[in-house]
User: What shape does this take?
Amino acid sequence: MAPADTGQPKVDLREPPSWRRTRDRAATALMAASLILVIIPLGLVLFTVIAKGASVISWSFLTGSIPPSVLPASFGGIGPAVLGTILITGLATVIAVPLGVLGAVYLNEYGSSRTLARLIGFMADVMTGVPSIVMGLFIFSIWVLHFGFSGLAGAFALGALMLPIVIRSTYEMLRLVPDSLREGSHALGATKARVTLTVVLPAALGGIVSGALLAVARAAGETAPLLFTILTVTTANPNVFSGPNTSLPSQIFVNASSPYVGAQARGWGAALTLIAIAFILMIAARLITARFARYVP
Amino acid sequence: MTQEQRDRRPSALAERRPFGDRAFQVITLAAGLLVLVILVLVAVSTSQQASSWFSSEGTKIFSSNWNPTAGQFGGLAFIYGTAITALIAIILAVPVSVGVALLLTEVVPRRWARPIVYVIDLLAVVPSVVWGLWGILTFAPWVQGIYNSIGSAVNGVPVLDAFFGPPASGASFFTAGIILAFMITPIVTSLSREVTATVPAIDKEGAYAVGATRLEVIRGVVIPHSQGGIVGAVLLGLGRAIGETIAAALVIGSSATITSHLFAPGYNMPSVIANEFGEATGVFRAALIGLGVLLFVFTIVINVIARTAVARSARRKRGA
Assistant: This one.
């Protein structure tokens, strides 16, 4: 059956091909191409690291001692570097996260629009742009020259890098906490400190933790601040407060410039370990954010 | 007491704040001030350690003579290398990053945009040293062949020869620039996306309603609206490219030379500090720390300008 004649003229709404449309299509194609250009290097790096690192990694590789560079990949491992990364990054987290959260509390709960708070917030953003190697030189000048190389010095440098990141992410989370929560607890007679500690911070906890995890993931991969603060040795040093130490990124840096195949293979293994740590932290942060998002609109 | 005086007095409740409450406020203030304290301490302590370089070399810190064994510590080659590698990184990364940002906000539906953002975040999490390891062991040997064929193709051609002619090395200014471009792409993309996402939908819909194509909407509405923010994003990327150390230290070739040849090995400020600090003493060490001071000043200036640009464009948006 033919469609009923509605009496309206037949109009073809499709635009005829034109120079304008061709240019539009070309622009969209260029944008899609730029996405591919971003994904290719990431894919290549991940593929190479997994292909070359997976064959090296085993439990004895993760815990074994670091052998001389000339030995092939089947000897020894990167145990001291794993230990150093866990200790130094952990210590940096313990130093930087509480300070960063308190700083963000000042910015959002006490400072609000005061000039000083605005200056601190602005400079915290600027501080995220300070090169990590400058933080290394800073801790070298102010600490290492007086007290010597140690994991603690490395933790100070990493902590200085994490601090502004934690401040920024915590500040964004505190801003999401509804004022009605604060007003409700003030109305019950709670002091501001009590409101902040028992109502505001718990309400923002998920976001704060996930922001801190991302900061830890960034810090765990940093090499430059550790070069002049822990000195990169090959022996394990469980005492993080004194004596030279080592870490996964420093070990990769040393092995990358080594001419020996065995050392390079250990470098790939260490790189896979480091990437795995960073990705796990990032995925954990995402999961926590997803959980948290259900409670705050 | 007049009404006015009574109003000016702090309320009785505020006066009787318990000690713990006031102490907590002071502690948070101290934590906030720590940011300013650290920045000042960075400037003071590193300048102090570098003072013997500044005083012994004077204006010669900007000369091109770098020969530690002969006691010559001119930093020009490193400043030049930093500028060249950062420029290459910006030229390669900015069009791609802005393209992806526009793709995410203007083309792709939201449920597809999310996984793409995750992938770009992954790129940001790959540590610098892993880029360096991949760069020197996998990428540099591969790209050397391309450099060689480009070099022989342009050999003798006037201008091109000066930039792309031999000598060609896998570890070079250009390789460092490419690796830096990979590393700054995530931050430039995510910041550009933040500003392009704030363009009011009604402006875009108005343009579409009068028959504009997507490209015309982007050029006529989105770009003018987010120009300031994108400039800020690019400057922040530049700041990253200038300060990024370990990847560049591994792939730049470690040669303190000033040359127009982009495929030749070179050096930049962060990588000379990273590679030579271990053996340095006396004025040598002061010179390396001094390069760090210059790096600090450059990045602070760039970041202040960038953050101001981003903040101003955000404020204008709120006002509009």
Observations:
- Residues 259 and 266 of chain B are 8 Å apart (CA to CA).
- The two ends of chain B are 46 Å apart (CA to CA).
- Chain B has 13 helices and two strands.
- Residues 52-319 of chain B form a domain with the MetI-like fold fold (CATH 1.10.3720.10).
